[in-house]
Design goal:
Blueprint lengths: L8 E5 L4 H11 L5 E3 L17 E5 L2 H4 L1 H6 L2 E7 L10 H8 L2 E7 L8 H11 L7 H15 L2 H11 L20 E8 L3 H19 L3 H20 L1 H5 L10 H15 L3 E6 L2 H14 L3 E5 L5 H12 L6 E6 H4 L8 E6 L6 H8 L11 E8 L3 H19 L1
Parallel strand pairs: 1-3, 1-4, 2-3, 4-5, 6-11, 7-9, 7-10, 8-9, 10-11
Helix pairs in contact: 5-6, 6-7, 8-9
């Protein structure tokens, strides 16, 4: 703000980190007047926003309040966790392109979450036209790099985007010399007899249905089969949707309970991620009963004020061990949860970048202990195959870096 520009800055971020942004602004820039533009009581008049130095809002509200936000002349637009606008056809991405700002900035740990199209969408918001049209970008860069590993196309893309990218790596000792290491391990679990029988019955029932199908219908049924098999690996109650006893029926649940009991006994705190809200509730119910420690729960339905109270409770000073169960998407972005020294991935997501972002809730600046990341996999199942695919994607990412 040394240029004496009095216009406000707009920061767009996931709902779950609005409070964290406000706390960090108060801590590092207490002189800036900060407004959280969120909730049913938010203003509907653009002039009301112009008296603030920083306005914070969420990606969910960006398209809803498009007309008002587009009417303000912003000093700067900052997109936190910018992979949220990786699809240029979404209303959030369209609104971000429509906002007038003197400066534009995107912050993300995964500019390429699934494919190079993601990078084009983000760069098109920041520097429209730099990478050409979406069709031209696919022809010149995305297809050659992704399908043919074309080194010349990759180098050309790096030269074009390089001047606009500032990158920080945790592996760079000159950037984060004091961050302790992260230790990753895969914990292989065994299906119970009930799980194994249900697993095979699920395959038999759904394969018969898939054989007579073709095209998109076949792909949809195969995806449904994979999802159901992953749920069987989690717990029969999760797969069947009928409530019942939790203990002793899932090898994976029994193993994570044993490991968490050891963590708590050592006086440490832990994060537990699952991609399924239903499984998150089952974990909360089971672990609340089994562990003699404070248990917290957060998913996409948790209101923002409650999220902030949960994060504050987990991060509160003291030596009491705490366990926080979270859905992967709701808890995997933006939060600072450095009180945890253990991270558990109860089930596996296809994209290693999403898992790593979740693990980085604990392994980030402010962490003083080694962070141990445990990934639970049922041996001999679809989960083991997913684990192999994720390992291959990680190898590809390390080569690209």
């Amino acid at each position: 703000r040394r240029d004496d520009d009095s216009r406000p800055a707009l920061i767009v971020c996931p709902t779950s980190v609005l409070g964290n942004w406000q706390r960090e602004l108060h801590r590092f820039a207490p002189g800036l007047r900060t407004l959280i533009h969120h909730g049913p009581d938010r203003t509907s008049h653009a002039p009301d926003l112009e008296d603030w130095d920083v306005v914070l809002t969420s990606y969910a509200l960006l398209p809803r309040d498009r007309r008002m936000l587009s009417a303000v002349q912003w000093r700067a637009l900052a997109l936190d966790e910018a992979q949220a606008v990786k699809n240029p056809l979404t209303r959030a991405a369209q609104t971000a392109r429509a906002i007038t700002a003197a400066h534009r900035l995107a912050l993300t740990g995964t500019p390429v979450e699934n494919r190079l199209d993601d990078l084009w969408s983000i760069m098109h918001i920041l520097n429209p036209g730099l990478l050409g049209t979406r069709t031209g970008f696919r022809r010149l860069f995305a297809t050659p790099v992704e399908r043919r590993a074309d080194n010349r196309a990759e180098e050309a893309l790096r030269r074009m985007t390089g001047p606009f990218v500032l990158r920080r790596r945790k592996t760079d000792p000159s950037v984060l010399p004091d961050l302790p290491p992260r230790q990753d391990s895969t914990e292989f679990c065994t299906l119970t007899v009930e799980q194994a029988a249900l697993y095979q019955a699920t395959i038999d029932a759904m394969l018969g249905r898939v054989r007579g199908l073709s095209g998109i219908e076949r792909r949809g049924n195969v995806l449904a089969l994979i999802t159901r098999l992953k749920q069987v690996c989690n717990h029969p109650v999760h797969a069947l949707g009928r409530h019942g006893t939790l203990s002793g029926r899932s090898g994976k649940l029994d193993r994570v309970t044993e490991m968490l009991a050891e963590v708590v006994a050592e006086g440490d705190s832990a994060l537990v991620f699952t991609q399924y809200a239903v499984m998150g509730k089952l974990l909360e119910e089971h672990l609340q009963r089994e562990l003699q420690s404070e248990l917290l729960y957060l998913d996409g339905s948790t209101p923002r004020p409650a999220r902030e109270r949960i994060v504050d409770a987990f991060q509160a000073p003291g030596d009491d061990p705490r366990v926080l169960v979270m859905s992967l998407r709701a808890g995997g972005l933006g939060l600072n949860l450095t009180n945890a020294s253990h991270v558990f991935h109860f089930d596996r997501w296809w994209n290693p970048a999403v898992e790593d972002q979740a693990s980085d809730r604990a392994h980030r600046i402010g962490q003083t202990r080694v962070v141990q990341v445990h990934r639970l996999v049922c041996a001999g199942t679809i989960e083991e195959r997913i684990d192999q695919l994720i390992a291959g994607k990680r190898d590809l990412r390390s080569e690209e870096h």
